[in-house]
Design goal:
The protein is mostly beta strands. The protein has no helices and 19 strands. It is globular. The mean pLDDT is about 90. InterPro entries: DUF1349.
Amino acid sequence: MAEAHTPKLKLHHGSSAMAISQDEPVLDLPTTMSYPALTIRAHPKTDLWRKPPHTDIDNAPIFLISAPIDLHRFHSARVTVSGAWNTLYDQGGLALFIPDEDIKKWVKTGIEYVWGKPFVGTVATSRWSDWSLVPLPESANGKVTIQVERETKGDERVESLWIYIINEETGEKLGIREITWWFRHDIVGGETSEAPRSLLIGVYGARPTVPEGAGREKEELAVKLEGFEVKLFED
């Protein structure tokens, strides 16, 4: 059997990410895919956000793994994100997409700058987005390692996607969010679905707000992403 190769990351902007979801999931991917550090530069007025009845913005720069992943095989992904956060809603971290029958579903999680300081922000989106924030200690200096992981019970893979903050010194995982519906396409009537479903995953940055101050109208946000790694189940 040929050795499985780690697919490259490819830059997309918002909805253009859906183009690669038309392909069937790639089955011969490595169980661990690791990527070197990279920096995403996000222009003002870029975002990933859906709020009824009229707002659906998806023009944020996203480096996606250039191969759809079988949703059933996805185990976890993590990245360390940092940046010079200084403008309302500056953000960056992990982004995951599931194309659906009528609308794409997605999750983003990482740093978001609100109320004058960086928080750990998570948005889960189906027909609309919700949003949660967790305080980040001052000692973190606007940097966090975030992990998304499929919940398991023994050897069984169940419906929820968990969001964790990782303590880099101890390796401890602090659960901050459970998204109960994320794997519903992989569970039908309590049993695993036979039809494979694609998952797209990568890292992103966004600057929804135009920075204040003369000459800053086009100022980009530089989001540094380190240690991006995706793990799959063996089968």
